[in-house]
Amino acid sequence: MGVSMKFTDLDQYLFGQGTNYEVYKKLGAHPTTYRRKKGVYFAVWAPNAQSVSVIGEFNDWEEEANPMEKVGPIGVYEVFVPGAKIGQLYKFFIVGAHGEKLYKADPYANEAELRPGTASRITDITDYKWKDATSRLTAHSLYHLLFALSRTFLFYFLSSFSSASATQI
User: Fold this and answer.
1) pLDDT of the chain, 169 residues: tens digit per residue
2) Residue 118's Cα: distance from chain center in Å?
């Protein structure tokens, strides 16, 4: 796992402050190469867990096959799984604070299996190119949209308030 994949002390600090705006690049499943082996780096935030492992098609859903290592005090767990491949399904197996066993989908997954299944699917979106630029909101266009909506809401709120008070007089 490259240096950029590991959840560093700085990542933990920024995540704890709520200012790690690129945490999606660290949490979830990320295909990579580590020590000349291809596989997938997995990371998840499970602050109250006793233990976490990743289970999936790459390890026959074996709960103890790929235990994850806790990184720092904030409850992030990570592991590199050699041989895991794009397209395979996976979940996180979590043993909770009171010993309960939970099978959880990845909240940072970029793809999931179709219902009724709930597993996440390993995907690689590093080279994904958006095909319809009109559907993407930029920060600037989002600002203008929210500004227009707030003005409209304020106008209707004030006009309904003034007309309601006029009818009570």
Assistant:
1) 444 678 888 999 998 888 888 888 899 999 999 999 999 999 999 999 999 999 999 999 999 999 999 998 999 999 999 999 999 999 999 999 999 999 999 999 999 999 999 999 999 988 777 666 655 656 666 666 666 666 666 555 555 555 554 455 4
2) 15
Structure tokens at 144: 């203008």
Please tell me the pTM assigned to this model: 0.74
Judge whether 45 and 75 are in contact, CB under 8 Å: yes
> CA-CA distance, 136 to 122, in Å (whole number)?
24
* CA–CA separation, 122 and 32 (whole Å): 12
